[in-house]
Write a structure and sequence with these properties.
- The mean pLDDT is 96.
- 21% of the residues lie in helices and 42% in strands.
- The protein has 263 residues and is of the alpha+beta class.
- The longest helix has 15 residues.
- It folds into 2 domains: 127 residues, Diaminopimelate Epimerase, Chain A, domain 1; 122 residues, Roll (Diaminopimelate Epimerase, Chain A, domain 1).
- It has an 18-stranded mixed beta sheet that branches.
- The chain contains 6 helices and 18 strands.
- The relative contact order is 0.19.
């Protein structure tokens, strides 16, 4: 029997926007080298693999290069796929066991809410290579457990960034989150995310980056609820709410294709 992959545009309500993820629903755990090869073949920011276990599903995420510890859009896509396949009733939560512990997804009126860990950020030294890669000298650089985070003055700077990906890939972090206040009243903040070190030059919409963006903007704006826009070429909307040491990330999803894998 061939394995089936579903391609889902996550953090979007319309096709060809948001962040596409491939989702493979397995009967049991597969060989990790095979999963990495499939992710390389798909050549999307993330390919997710899941199989049933006691209490829910085991879930793994792979970029074309490596397995990662946390991924928002592929988790959203995985939950959407289980509901679409009617493996789980839409009135029931989906629970995933991952490298980042148990993650729960809930269907809420066409939006999928994900319970993720909040990631605090702390000031850190600014590597010379980072300023060169940005072609801009930040006044303050912060670091979460996974990524660097920098705030730029406005959306003109954020949208006009030309990143030296070769240099950025040499830094000791998964990637770089760049953010600023939104120029539009529709959103609280905007961001972009770059992760060439793990094979993703610019990620279209990054749920896990918002695990750090939420606590950062809570500190800046003194509020807990946000509507955010990731300003990649495809673009996508993320709603988030801080709940203690957790963050509820919400997005929509669109099924794009169904693929049969013969190897």
């Amino acid at each position: 029997m061939p394995s089936i992959l579903y391609v889902v545009d996550a953090f979007s309500s319309v096709p060809f926007s948001g962040n596409p993820a491939a989702v493979c629903v397995l009967e049991a755990q597969a060989d990790e080298a095979w999963m990495q090869n499939v992710a390389q073949e798909m050549n999307l920011a993330e390919t997710a693999f899941m199989w049933p276990i006691a209490g829910g599903y085991s879930l793994k995420w792979f970029t074309p290069m490596v397995e990662v510890d946390l991924c928002g859009h592929a988790t959203l896509a995985s939950a959407f796929t289980l509901w679409h396949m009617k493996k789980i009733d839409i009135a029931s939560d989906v629970r995933f066991h991952t490298r980042s512990g148990w993650l729960t997804c809930t269907w809420r009126n066409e939006w999928i809410e994900m319970d993720f860990p909040a990631l605090t950020v702390q000031p850190c030294e600014i590597p010379d290579a980072l300023a060169t890669a940005l072609d801009w000298q930040p006044k303050l650089l912060l670091r979460s457990s996974m990524d660097y985070l920098v705030e730029v003055p406005d959306e003109v700077v954020l949208r006009g960034l030309k990143i030296n990906m070769r240099l950025l890939a040499t830094l000791p972090a998964r990637g770089l989150i760049v953010t600023c206040k939104s120029a539009s009243a529709d959103f609280d903040f905007v961001s972009r995310f770059f992760a060439p070190a793990v094979g993703v030059d610019e990620d279209p919409v990054t749920g896990s980056a918002h695990c750090a963006l939420g606590p950062y903007w809570k500190m800046k704006l003194q509020k807990n609820d946000f509507k955010a826009f990731q300003a990649s070429k495809r673009g996508g909307i993320v709603q988030l709410e801080l709940r203690g040491d957790r963050v509820a990330l919400s997005g929509q999803a669109v099924l794009m294709s169904r693929i049969e894998l013969f190897h």
